[in-house]
C-alpha cells in the first residue's frame, strides 16, 4: 500500500478516535455542568466544543486551496460561553467534524505535493494534518479532564481504570 494512503487512513482513524473519546467524555457530564467554568479565564466543555468547531470550519473549508485562517472566522467569539443546551453543543460538534471529514476523505496521493497555508505559514499536507490532529487531541484531553471533575464520582474510565492495570498486562 502507498505510504501516503497509509498516513491518510491512520490520520482519519485517529481523528475518529479522538472524536469518539470526546463524545464518551461529554456523555458522562450532566447537562447543566457542560457550561461550568472554573474561573473567567477558563473554558467550559461547551466553549471548548465551540472553539474546536470554529477551528475545524476555518481550517478544513477549502483545505487544499485557501489559507486555513479564514477572514470570516470570529475566533474570539468561539470563547464566549453562550451555548445553552447539550443538543445545541452536539450540533456544533457534529458540524465541525463533518467539515473535517468532508475535506480529508477525498484526499488522494497527488494532493500530498500541495502546500497548505495556515495563517500565511506554509505547511506540507502532512504537517497541516498533524498540526490539527495534535490541536484537537489536546482539547479532547481537556474535555476528558473536565468530564472526570464534573461527573462527581460516576466517571467510567475511557481507558484502563485505576487499579486495574494488571488485568490488561501481558502475563509472562
Task: Give a topology summary.
Elements: H1 3-27, H2 45-60, H3 86-104, E1 115-118, E2 121-124, H4 125-150, H5 165-168
Antiparallel strand pairs: 1-2
Helix pairs in contact: 1-4, 2-3, 2-4
Pfam families: DUF1572
Organism: Cyclobacterium xiamenense
Protein name: DUF1572 domain-containing protein
Q: Any idea what the CATH architecture is?
A: Up-down Bundle
How much helix, percentage-wise, in residues? 40-55%
User: Please, what is the average pLDDT?
Assistant: 95
Q: What is the number of independent domains?
A: 1
Order of helices and strands: HHHEEHH
- Main-sheet strand order equals 1-2
Distance from first to last alpha carbon: 35 Å
Low confidence ranges? none
Supply the CATH class: Mainly Alpha
Number of strand elements: 2
* Rg over C-alpha atoms, rounded to the nearest angstrom: 18 Å
> How would you sum up the global shape?
flat
Quaternary organisation of the protein chains: single chain
Please describe the biggest sheet, giving its number of strands, its sense, and whether it closes into a barrel.
Answer: 2 strands, antiparallel
Structural class call reads: mainly alpha
Tally of contiguous helical segments: 5
Q: How is the CATH topology named?
A: Four Helix Bundle (Hemerythrin (Met), subunit A)
Question: TL;DR?
Answer:
By secondary structure, this protein is mainly α. It has helices at residues 3-27, 45-60, 86-104, 125-150, 165-168; strands spanning 115-118, 121-124.
Description of the molecule:
Helices cover 52% and strands 5% of the residues. With 172 residues, the chain is mainly alpha-helical. The chain has a single domain, classed as dinb family like domain (Four Helix Bundle (Hemerythrin (Met), subunit A)). Strands 1-2 form a two-stranded antiparallel ribbon.
